[in-house]
Specification:
Blueprint: H1 97-110, E1 111-113, H2 122-126, E2 132-136, H3 142-150, E3 155-160, H4 163-176, E4 181-185, H5 188-195, E5 201-207, H6 225-234, E6 235-245, H7 248-260, E7 264-266, H8 284-291, E8 297-303, H9 312-317
Parallel strand pairs: 1-4, 2-3, 2-5, 3-4, 5-6
Antiparallel strand pairs: 6-8, 7-8
Helix pairs in contact: 1-4, 3-4
């Protein structure tokens, strides 16, 4: 049996046309995040009002044209920073019309592109001197908006690269009148290292980060000693690091790494996991995981008072 041949994109040849025929321009959008503009069926970009019966072609965006001219940049830090560990896993999803509208309208006011080229003043960013908590990875932003509404005197700098989530969180903040939320676009590692000053944060939240379950990928996990070294320099003494995960092996590794770090202490007397605090909402996806029998572990560690720190090399050589 002969293999099935792929459907040709050639149009049927007219009686007076040469055998070479014509080809349809089947170009599609260069980004899954680009909001689609509806086009009449049979309209070919650049073909004016010419109509090809039975052919529907998607609206295209010129190469290099930004998705949202007044919104977040595609890669604000570019490639000018070495990044062994990233705080995110890139993913693409379609942006709804409402999310696109929020990105266009609200990004200039509440958005921050993490380009690593300047130090930001958090008091100026939020317009007040209230405590600031950094949240790394917020998904679609429902839990972030709920926490912001429940504690209006705490500012939340929420960082993610998921464009639909950025638009959704901006939309929620606008609808609920939340003035204590700012949305960061880019790598939180670069934000911590290049754009925040020492002792500038009052808390750090990392909820359900990518567990990187394969052993060869464990080095990509966010909660590692070198990340905690960096975070400790930006957290004020007494600031709380709150992590949560439903991947038990990752939870065990988080507990081990945080317990071993000299700049943090467990808030639990037994040195184990913490019960879910009331301020952390139960998300829709977390609820689905619980229905499947997943166990969610919370970790609450406090930044200790400043002390003279040993160099990493000296610490490695010190007797145990």
């Amino acid at each position: 049996m002969s293999p099935v041949r792929p459907r040709s994109t050639r149009l049927p040849r007219g009686p007076s046309e040469p055998r070479t025929g014509r080809k349809i321009d089947c170009t599609v959008s260069d980004s899954l995040n680009a909001p689609e503009a509806p086009q009449p069926a049979g309209t070919v970009p650049g073909a004016g009002s010419h109509h090809i019966p039975g052919v529907s072609v998607r609206h295209t965006r010129a190469k290099g044209e930004p998705r949202f001219p007044d919104g977040p940049q595609a890669d604000p830090a570019g490639s000018h920073f070495e990044r062994r560990i990233r705080s995110f896993q890139p993913r693409r999803s379609r942006v709804t019309a409402g999310q696109a509208d929020a990105l266009q309208r609200l990004w200039p006011k509440w958005g921050l592109d993490i380009d690593g080229r300047r130090t930001i003043d958090l008091g100026e960013l939020f317009g007040n001197g209230n405590p600031v908590v950094l949240e790394i990875g917020f998904g679609m932003g429902e839990a972030t908006a709920q926490m912001a509404a429940g504690d209006p005197d705490t500012n939340i700098l929420a960082v993610d690269v998921h464009t639909p989530g950025q638009g959704n969180l901006l939309n929620l903040a606008d609808q609920q009148g939340l003035s204590n939320v700012r949305v960061g676009n880019g790598d939180a590692i670069i934000l911590l290292r290049e754009m925040l000053g020492p002792d500038s944060l009052d808390g750090l939240r990392v909820y359900f980060p990518d567990p990187w379950p394969k052993k060869r990928h464990h080095k990509r996990r966010l909660i590692q000693p070198e990340f905690l070294d960096l975070a400790a320099t930006r957290l004020k003494p007494g600031a709380v690091v709150h992590c949560a995960t439903d991947w038990e092996p990752y939870a065990e590794q988080m507990l081990e790494v945080l317990t071993a770090h000299p700049e943090f202490e467990n808030t639990q007397a037994d040195g184990g996991f913490a019960p879910r605090p009331g301020h952390r909402p139960l998300t829709r996806f977390e609820g689905q995981g619980l229905d499947k029998g997943h166990v969610v572990n919370d970790l609450l560690f406090r930044r200790v008072q400043h002390r003279v720190r040993q160099s990493p090399q000296h610490r490695l050589e010190s007797p145990r």
